[in-house]
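[SOLVED] Need 3D model of a two-part complex

Original post:
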Amino acid sequence: MELLNEYDKAQVQEKQTRSTGVTLEQIDLVLQQLQEARAALIGLDDSTEDELVVVAKEKVSRLAEGLGHAQAKAMAATKDLHGAVAKYAKALDKDKKLKSAADIDDMWNPRVLDHPDARRTLHTAVIQHLVREGRFGLARTFAAEGAKADRDRDRERDWSADSDSGSGIEGQQGQFAEMYAVLAGLRAFDVAPAEAWVARNAVALAAVDSPLAFAVARLAFLKLLFGSPSTPNNNGNSDNHNSNNNNNNAPNRAAALAYAQTAFAPFKIAHLKDIQKLMCCFAYSNNIAQSPYKALYSHDAWSDLAHIFTRDFCLLLHLPPESPLQTCVSVGVNALPTIIKMSSILKDQSGLEWSTHGELPVEIPLLDRQRFHSIFACPVSKELGTKENPPMMMVCGHVVCKESLLRLGKG
Amino acid sequence: MSTDTKKLEGGEQNMPLRRFPQTLYLIDHITNSSRYAGTVSRQGALYSVPLEQFKRAFKTSQKHIEKEWAALATSANDHISKLDLDRLKSKEGEKPTREDALKVVDGLLGRFTTLKKKIQESKDEEELYAKRSRIRLEHLDELLSLPSQESAGFTRWSKTQLDRILVDYMLREGCFESAKNLAKEAGIQASFLQLVDVELFEQSKMIEDALERRSCVECLQWCKENNSALKKMKSNLEFNLRIQEYVELVRVQKSAEAIAYLRKHLAPASDIHLKEVQVAAALLAFEPDTLCGRYKTMFDESRWDQLIIQFRAENCILNTLTTQPTLHTVLQAGMAALKTPMCYQAENQNVKCPICIGHVYGALAEKLPNAHHVNSCLVCRISGEIMNEDNLPMALPNGYVYSQKALEEMALKHDGIVTCPRTGSQFHFIQARKAFAI
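Solution:
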């Protein structure tokens, strides 16, 4: 990357180290000379006074020279460093992609977050984000400090009426604690917490047609059959392990079969084909790696299950699968260059102001997964579909908005 | 803004566009730019801050080496020549003794040892900020070498970025414990701490707290340390602080001290701030509870708040920081880009959409403009997937549209019957018709 290369080319770090080294070396030299002079003076015999004076003068005057030299050397190294830093600073300045702070401050700032109420809402949003990420301690710390900051900032307001956000955290924490327990289990290749959660929420999951229940059962079965991925799966030794091993991480055909017979029963209809595939896995119980089914039990299978689990967990709780703060910030970061460009253009155009109503003047590109609402733009009039002007489908299947339809009809 | 006209199919004419005409040509330009443009363009302050800190430390080092060292060398010379003179002057056998010479040497030893310590300190600071600059540059480098926005590496980088933005936010809110804990947890390597400017904000907080306690001392010290930069900015912060200290003396009627203070600190500024100095001088004649306009404002307690605000603003400029937390800027941009009128309509809520969370993001986004979309983009209510040529939109007899894949899946599981999630009405899959709405 350019800037990093510029920095290294200018040798900023090396020169800094060198200048430090040289400077301290020189100063140590000076100190040493001073010590020598001192020692010499003390060592002189009292009686020879004239000599004393001469020697003293000589030693001390040499000192002055030494000081000068040392300083010059240190100065040289310093200048060198200065040059290097100046080069880097210039490269930084020139880099057009990096906007300086001043530019951004002048940019679009609808000041929506300046109001004290908005700031408290923002605190809540941050706390929720932290809880969602499983950082419960941090959420609590911030809730306390944030509340104090609010109180300090706005002393006239009556804060006693506000509910303690701490209790909110407890509630959310309880919800997410479960999720993190299961995810931790999955990371350790332990399906049990997931199975328990699925059992508890079987009804809700069925209602949303979730694939999770079967996915968990499948993975549990495969684990019984092939053993935990972390334990080395010795080819051909699985039978030996059975008798000696109490550890339920070892492959255990009999248990797998028993499990399959009970656990797969509810999925007989919907997942028949999948169950058939899984039964075939028995033939490969010694070398899953060579089977066509190895994808079913790779490390990715575990992380995919974690993914499905997180998604369904949030779905049941009516929560978004990704932290909303993360979503907004990701989108915002990508939106900024566009907005900055727009601001500079608008400014040039004799001070046209951004209004805080209506729409942004330009489209911000969103990733597919950041699209949450349908937008319909009429191919005829380019207007967006609204309640008053809804999209209408014609007999041929093409869709235009109502107004356009009426206009077409007139002709 | 001039309205533009467009010839449309079907002979439509004179259809005014609601949007700024010039923006259209720009859209292509913007989408063609680097895919990480957004992430990179926000980072200016990230690199300029440690650079400024480095420059400051460097200036101090330079001062030590250039000025103080030279001064010591000169004074050494002086002493030496004095020794000589003394010797010449002494007629009564008062010769310069060993003690005199020793005194000179000891003196030099002491002062050079102090100088060494000071140089070491400023050099350590230089090193810290030089290293920090590099670590931040490496961080950016990491981003630019990622394959795509969908990669796991990018997700990880985004998480680090969000953590960094949150730490900056917490620091500015004065929540130092939270900020430090977050930094500790977030950093897999210790280098995360190098991505945030904890010390800077801690120092500012200390000064602001002092001002809240009605003490100008710390802020004046800060002004002294940043004298040259403040002068370049033509800042009158120091003068305002001096005025405030003076006012406080007058307030408690310590007239003698006030006058002395006026002479020492305010009078020298008369060339630039004559009017203010005159008003200040006249203040002595008034009581703190005076009603006389101009002098009443001088006694006003809110002047302290003004000082805090001024310090904060100038501190940011000096350190090339933005005055708004990054979180504010980024969040407002993101919310506007996501906001649609549907977010506020009960029947169109999407659980994944942040703005639909009414009591948090919906509330914050209320006063923001909506996102602007030129092209259709249909999102299936059932699966959340985009409807496109791989996944066609299909309309049920009741008018609602869902994606082909979602309807097919549903039909598969329920013997060909699909249920409209919005109304609950049931239809057979055959009844769904392809809609050409893209």
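Edit: The longest helix of chain A spans residues 49-94.
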